[in-house]
Each structure stands twice: as structure tokens, then as C-alpha cells.
Amino acid sequence: MAKILVVDDEQSIRRTLRDILEFEKYKVDEAQDGLECLVKLKKNKYDIIIMDIKMPKMDGMEALERIQLLAPETPTIMISGHADINTAVDAVKKGAFDFISKPPDLNRLLITIRNAMDKSTLITEKKDLRRQVSKSKVQEIIGNSAEITHIKETIARVAPTEARVMITGANGTGKELVACWLHEQSERKQGQLVEVNCAAIPSELIESELFGHEKGSFTSAHKQRIGKFEQANGGTLFLDEIGDMSLSAQAKVLRALQESVITRVGGDKAISVNVRIVAATNKDLRKEIKAGRFREDLYHRLAVILIHVPKLNERRDDIPLLVQHFVEIICKEYGTIPKKVTPDALKALKNVDWTGNIRELRNVVERLIILSDKEITAEDVLKYVSPNNPRRSEKYKEIFDKFNNVDELHKFIDQEFPNYK
Known about the structure:
alpha/beta; Rossmann fold; 3 domains; five-stranded parallel beta sheet; 18 helices; 47% helix
């Protein structure tokens, strides 16, 4: 149900409009002047605003200008009994959807509301499409640190070849982005980049996911399925979190790499595939090999080129560039003007302990964009990001690592800092 805010200093007008709109199945809220309108707009989301021009405290024209800053996507219909053509033109120039004279013609008002709703729907659809398009594009690898520069140079050298690549790094560091760039700069970029998250697929289904299956090969196999290897034929297959793949699936992947041939589950036909493999993991595969959880021969097949993606805490100098990048793309997705990030805010963000790496930083920037006012300040960072998560210096890290328990730490503090409370 669409929600409409009626703003007018005359109670009788508000009541009449409420009765009409509620009869038409709209949900209606009221405000008696422009100031109350802005207060309600900060707390609630409205599909349409119907607002008088002449009102005490804050008139409609001034409120309209503020609305364009607070909620520019919300259509505002201006009404007035004391206006002329110049006022109407001025209102439209300032962002009003339409202008209607008092007393408003009922049919004209309802048609205008429906048109405004249609416009609002189109704006929403446009934002969704823009968001989908931006996600479909390969994002740039942001950063000028030595680590990131080395990764970019490695990609430029390796991508045009057919060499298999193993990408290592913690969760959220951007391993998938590196894989995307390897594909984008390769000779296979006209083919598909097919991703398989080995950690998200149950072990009993991973073989069907990778190699496909024939109809009737198991209970729920009601029809033939083409696996990821076949889908990526002529392109790149990205095996994300390959350290979580079962040993039986590893054996079949090894055969596919050795012979460029696969067999669907429940089938006996050998199918030739031409696929470049890029793998990624957040695990130490050397340890997994010693523990018997990963095949050493598969590791050596995959790790022709090794690319390690560092944690965000290891490349803090890239944080200002990353923040600016995320501000621009997130505000573009929301259809809003990018917010300024103050130097103090950037400094505060550099001092956060980024356990979630790039993924956490993006979420934090989105949170700051939503919750901050006109600009993102250091106070916003302290309030919304890291009140209990300051960066611990290496000096204190060394001190803390010396103690086996909290009691030993308290004894040390009492001895070294007798005035500490």
C-alpha cells in the first residue's frame, strides 16, 4: 500500500484529503507545516508528498528545497490557493512533480498521484538495473601499495598464458576479484568465467556440480545436468575455497586436468573439455596435505603460479583509495550524491582492526553513508564503526602475547602502571 504525506496548515484540508486518499486505498500521514514534514521525512519513507505552499514556520517552497536533499526520489505535488503561473513554474524548477491549484480537482489530483507513483516505480527499477549492471562489470583492483602493485604486475604477465593459478589469502581480501581479472585479461575473455564455491556445496553433490549427471543416476536426478566444467568450456573455471573439496572430487578434478576429459555422474561417456583452472583458498594447503585432507599431486597441478592477496591490515595505505572507491559506487547504486569523507575520518578508518578485510570495509562504508549526515567524519567512525575495536599497536601486541592468562596481565599492569585504574 502506497504511503502519502499530506502537508497543510489547515486541518480541514488535511482531513478532506485523508478521507479521499484512504477511500482510494492509500495510507496517509499528516504534517501541519514544512518543519514537521521534514521531521517525519527523516523518520519515515513516503511514496508521495502533497504539500501546501503558504504555511507557518517553514513554507512549502523552502521545505521543497530541503526535500530534494533528504529524499530527492520522492515525488512532491504542490498545492496552493494563492499562487499564479510564476509560482507554479518556480515550484517545478525546484523539483516539484506537479502543481495543483486549490481547491484541487479530485480527478486531476488522483491522476497526478498515479503518474507520480509510476515515476517512482520507474526510478526504483532504474536503480535496480543500474545496480545489476555495476555488479556485472569487473571491478577495478584498487590500491597503490607494493603488495597490490605486485599482484597487478603478476596478473598482466600470467593472464595471457594458459598457466593454472592458485590464489591464496584470508576471507574477504578479494581473491575472486583477482580471478576475474585473470579471466578478463586472458585470451579466453570471450568465454565464460564459471565460479564454483566448493565450501558452499555439500560433499555428496560437488561431483554432480562439477561434472554434471545423467538422468536417473541418483534419486533426485530427474533430468540430465550439465556440470561446471562443460559450462566453462572455452573459458575459465574458478574453483573457490578448493581446500574444502572432498578427496573423491579432488581425484576426478586431477583426472580432468591431466586428460582434459570428464565423465558425468552415472555416465560412461568421456567428454572433452578445454578449460583453464583458477583456484583459490583461505587455507594453508601444505598443512592440509600433511593432514591427509588434500592431494599433493593436485596441489602441484593447480599451483603453477601462486598469487597471495594480503589482508587489509597489511595494506593500510590503500584504505583512503578503497574508501573513496566504495563511496562512489555505493552512492551511485543508491542514486545519491557521493558524500565527502574528512581526512580525520580516513585516519580513523586506517586505525581500525579489519578482521573482515575488504568485505568488511565496504560494509562499513555503506553503513557510514547511510547513518552520517552531510559528510563522513571521525566522530561517525568512532560512533558507528569501532567504539570497541581500536587498532592494537605492535608494541602492545608483543606485551599481551607474553601472558598466559588474564591474572598475569593484571599483575603486570599493577607493577608497571601503579596509578592505572
